[in-house]
Amino acid sequence: MIDLDYLAFLENILTDNRKANFLKVLENRTKHFTVAVEDVYQMHNTSAVMRSCEVFGIQELNVIEQRFGKRIDKEIALGAQKWVDINRFDSVSGCLSDLKGKGYQIIATTPHEKDCMLEDFDISKPSALFFGTEKEGLSKEIMDNADGFLKIPMVGFTESLNISVSAAIIIQSLTNRLRRSDINWKLTDEEILVKRLLWAKNSIKDIKRIEERYYQDNPR
Fold first, then answer.
1. Of 26, 35, 196, 215, which is the most buried if we count CB atoms within 10 A?
2. DSSP conformational letter for 120
3. Cα dihedral sign for 78, 79, 80, 81?
4. Which ranges carry the tRNA/rRNA methyltransferase SpoU type domain (predicted)?
5. Which residues are annotated as a binding site?
6. What are the tens digits of pLDDT across the range 194-213?
7. Annotated binding site for S-adenosyl-L-methionine
8. How far is it, in rounded angstroms, from Cα 49 to Cα 65?
9. d(C-alpha 5, C-alpha 64), whole Å
């Protein structure tokens, strides 16, 4: 349960404009879709995908670091790491199990004989959109466990796009369609409170000292 008194205490430190922006952004956040990236060697690509998630309202990004355990490039992410939840996994199986347990269908974003064009994709089901490595694409394990395959229609000679570009195109298209639909895609009231608290903490300098002072004055 969220400590509403603590939330109110922290938000009282923020400007009214900051608090209003939080509510406006949270109104457009969703967990109906989530994004997963697998062993992306160029870390700036993962950072760019995170930025696209933040811009287009995807709340959670799942990062599989089975081979390349690198850190998010903060310059590319441009602060997006403060507002997007990063779920890290050290194995493909762990990520797949977690997402399936949350009720997501696994969608591999890759050309495939049974793939679906972006504009024809059924947005009604909660979906985890998987993006693979720059050279090799998604692993066989993900392909074998995928519930569906999705691709961007292209009419040029080039057969593929950079992962960060592909993610931006797909996320923008699907979230725009989602917001025009009557699907229940928004965060729950409890999820919004959780984000308000986390974002308030992320916005306040010296939060540890302020938190200690609050609980000294308001023992549990």
1. 35
2. G
3. positive
4. 33-171
5. 109, 152, 161
6. 999 999 999 998 999 999 98
7. 109, 152, 161
8. 15
9. 37
